[in-house]
Amino acid sequence: MRQYNTIKTKYPDALLLFRVGDFYETFGEDAVKAAKILDIILTNRNNGGEKTELAGFPHHSLNTYLPKLVKAGQRVAICDQLEDPKQTKTIVKRGVTELVTPGVAINDDILTAKDNNFLCAIHFGRKLLGVSFLDISTGEFYVSEGSEEQIDKLLQNFAPNEVLISKAHKKEYDDLFKSRFHSFYMEDWVFQEDYAEETLTNHFKIKTLKGFGVADLQQGIIASGVVLHYLLETQHKRLQHITSIKRIAEEEYIWMDRFTIRNLELYHSHNTQAVTLLSVIDKTISPMGGRLLKRWLALPLQHVEKIRSRHQIVAYLTSDAEILDKLRNHIKQIGDLERLISKVATGKINPREVVYLKNSLEAIVPIKSMISACNNKALNLMGDQLDPCDMLRTKVKEMLCEEAPVNLLKGKTIADGFLDELDELRAMAFSGKDYLDKMLERETERTGITSLKIASNNVFGYYIEVRNTHKDKVPEEWIRKQTLVNAERYITEELKEYEAKILGAEERILSLEQQLFSQLIVWLQEYIAPVQQNAYQIAQLDCLCGFTQLAKENNYVEPEINDSTDIIIKNGRHPVIEKQLPLGEAYIANDVHLDRTMQQIIMITGPNMSGKSAILRQTALIVLLAQMGSFVPADEAKIGYVDKIFTRVGASDNISAGESTFMVEMNETASILNNLSERSLVLLDEIGRGTSTYDGISIAWAISEYLHEHPARAKTLFATHYHELNEMAATFERIKNYNVSIKELKDNVLFLRKLVPGGSEHSFGIHVAKMAGMPQQVIHKANKILKKLEKSHSSEELTDKLQAAQNEMQLSFFNLDDPLLEQIKEEIASLDINTLTPVEALMKLNEIKRLLGKKKKASS
Questions:
Q1: Which of 334, 450, 490, 832 is the most exposed, having the fewest neighbouring CB atoms within 10 Å of its CB?
Q2: Could you please report the per-residue DSSP string of 65-95?
Q3: What is the number of other CB atoms lying within 10 angstroms of the CB of residue 675?
């Protein structure tokens, strides 16, 4: 217990699995936690004079229990026996051989094939935050820095399993990111720039980080250094597979804030039943491809040439079904190359996995020759970068048995014919049966005992068994070893010699196999870089074959990506909804045309459930798919590449943080209006409905006007209940009205789900209530109230008031004696210069200019 306590004090925040004989034991509070998480029995015993809780499991069950502990968010220190108990007379030396945490795991039972297991560190700099992501199981290492919003988005994209933060910044972290991730707080001294840089340059064995293009990311470098420091702290010192660090260059990818990622349900959804975009488009068949697809979805490209290159490969594969099938069949044979080679680096690979690595590389040979011979430059380039690793495959084939075991101690690992000494020892150890048969025959003849038996057990080794009826025929030189109820067991000199020889051979075989296998692993480490390069190329190819399969199965077309700022989609469909429709029901496709000169803002009105939100979302998803490199669900799509996508969809309370639906809505909308660019795509759904009708209409009107007048002229789809907003099209030249059409029958409404020009008049909310099965008397009463309200607050009145408010500013201009000077004086006097942004200043000027223009018209 003293030894246990000494080790435990070094790892106070980890659950310590302490190896005792054939068991891993936990004590005290650790035992209480372990018993609860693992559902094992909690006992107690008097250790060192006081009652101590105790819970344990057999050491060979580690792979069953360890994942459960880590998935429950525990950091687990594995404390093993560091010497053979037979070799020591005192207490066995023990020490922590590995610390497994939610973000640092190589164990297959903890990892998910198509998911990365990222460890992340965040450094709070003076102005910017630095962030770093590392997956020890694949060797991927990323770094970036940016504003709180950018880091928040990256956290959502990379979904780390563990986040490291300085203890000094615990409060800021909690305020910003709430406790969405498993976090671990570290000492402040680790977050120092010179220490971080030294950690990184020592690891990569380089003088400067300039070669990786990350030297200017001061805060990012600190975060990266912290991640590597943490790996060394957790006893992960063999990291040759982490060969480079990549910068996440925000400017190369579409910017989506976390609201957008959540609203579009790209890879998660609030609703447990909901189908995400990822689950519809993921046709990858290799673990590497599955992980890369998630990265592509999180970071869609802005670079037109790179996007076109992906489209060309998909177009080529679509036109040649035979090559697509062959490629997919070969990719199926490839294991998880990234994780296999990482296991080589960390020394955690078993013989069967090495054979699997060799077989996976064999499957690359036909892929290389196929894509190198294709009539497509991008594919040829991929083919050139694949390395068949001939020497590696030859050596493993010569050295290991094809049926090598998982456990080196259990089964035959090294192939016959590889080492003469090993073959001789095996002949001796395994030809024993013939030798024993001959001995049995000889002794039976010599003694005349017909029922002689030669066998062995763990206690006595080999023995000859004689039934009691033949006891008197036993030769004198046999030595009695054990008496049974109806038999006696003897040993002879010859048997003892034979046994020593066999046991010696078996021990030597085992020692030789271990030695040769260790040498092979060290030799394999030379191939880390080429195998990682292969893994990346196969992952890309798998994603592109997946896109091709997706396009063929669902009738997607190749989009045209260009440098314009227009978006023209003909008969676009929602990729997820069209897969959920009942058999035989076709998805109603719609056209969308947006540009910055004629039709910048489309106001979509229409009743509840008519499909407004679907049209908004499908536009964003089509743009996203196109810029990921996929074909799209439409008849035709011409897309001027987009640099930011913003959505504000549906109302969702954040009550736990004390924010109402309306507050959340306004936060998200403010974030959009403050970050607009010329290539932004903005989707607004039901803005203002979290407050009273008049408030809501006023806010929605003001937001639409802001978007129209903003110099960026961001392309916008605005779905709304407020039919009053249709009046805006008369005043603002780039706002156009559309509605989702319906067909009114006698006492029913058919949703046609077709987008047509013009505004709509009613919202049919009561009709939807009827469809939901609301009691008849409620429906009846609602209709009565509606008629009364329509009489007293006619829509025209409200519209007139809005128009009056709109004209008020213009009228006051020439009602005053010196209208222009008076008005401009007032406008300027009421401005708060300290809070005015440059964009708002430009817009103020623009507003005054427009008023002047109207005055000119009026006076002429």
A1: 832
A2: HHHHHHHTT--EEEEEE-S-GGG-SSPPPEE
A3: 15
Instruction: Give the DSSP letter string of 132-177.
Output: EEEETTTTEEEEEEE-HHHHHHHHHHH--SEEEEEGGGHHHHHHHH
Report the C-alpha gap between 254 and 233 in whole angstroms.
36
Separation CA 199–CA 715 (nearest Å): 46
* Torsion, Cα of 46, 48, 49, 51 (10° steps): -40
- Take residue 69 and report the two structure tokens written for it: 């502990």
In the numeric block, which tokens belong to residue 656? 């736990």
Q: Which of 503, 475, 425, 535 is nearest to 140 (CA)?
A: 535
Alpha-carbon gap, residue 293 to 628, rounded angstroms: 9
Q: Between the CA of residue 502 and those of 426, 497, 509, what are the distances in Å?
A: 9, 9, 10
Q: Measured between alpha carbons, how far is 220 from 233 in angstroms, rounded to an integer?
A: 20
State the number of CA atoms in the 13 A half-sphere of 305 facing the CB: 1
| Cα 68 from Cα 404, distance rounded (Å) | 29
**Beta carbons within 10 angstroms of residue 856's beta carbon:** 9
pLDDT at 795 over 60: no
Q: How far is CA 76 from CA 34, 71, 261, 429, in A?
A: 10, 11, 33, 41
Using CA atoms, how far apart are residues 327 and 316, in angstroms rounded to an integer?
13
As a whole number of angstroms, the distance between CA 117 and CA 112 comes to 8
Q: Given the DSSP bridges, would you call strands 560-562 and 644-648 parallel, antiparallel or unpaired?
A: unpaired
Strands 644-648 vs 680-685: parallel, antiparallel or unpaired: parallel
Half-sphere exposure at residue 541, Cβ-oriented, CA atoms within 13 angstroms: 32
Segment holding 779, helix H or strand E: helix 776-792
3-class secondary structure per residue, 566-617: CEEEEEECCCCHHHHCCCCCCCCCEEEEECCCCCCEEEEECCCCCCHHHHHH
What are the backbone dihedrals phi and psi of residue 834, each rounded to the nearest 5 degrees, phi first?
Answer: -65, -30
pTM for this predicted structure? 0.84
Given a contact cutoff of 8 angstroms between Cβ atoms, the answer to whether 628 and 791 are in contact is no
Mean pLDDT calculated for residue range 710-727: 90
CA distance 233 to 592: 55
Q: Judge contact between 331 and 289, C-beta under 8 A.
A: yes
57: closest CA among 86, 78, 75? 78
Q: What is the pLDDT of residues 392-440, one digit of tens each?
A: 999 999 999 999 999 888 889 999 999 999 998 888 777 766 778 888 8
C-alpha torsion sign, points 745, 750, 754, 755: positive
pLDDT in tens, 778-789: 877 877 877 776
Exposure string (b/e) for 513-539, b if CB count within 10 Å is 16 or more? beebbeebbeebeebbebbbebbbbbb
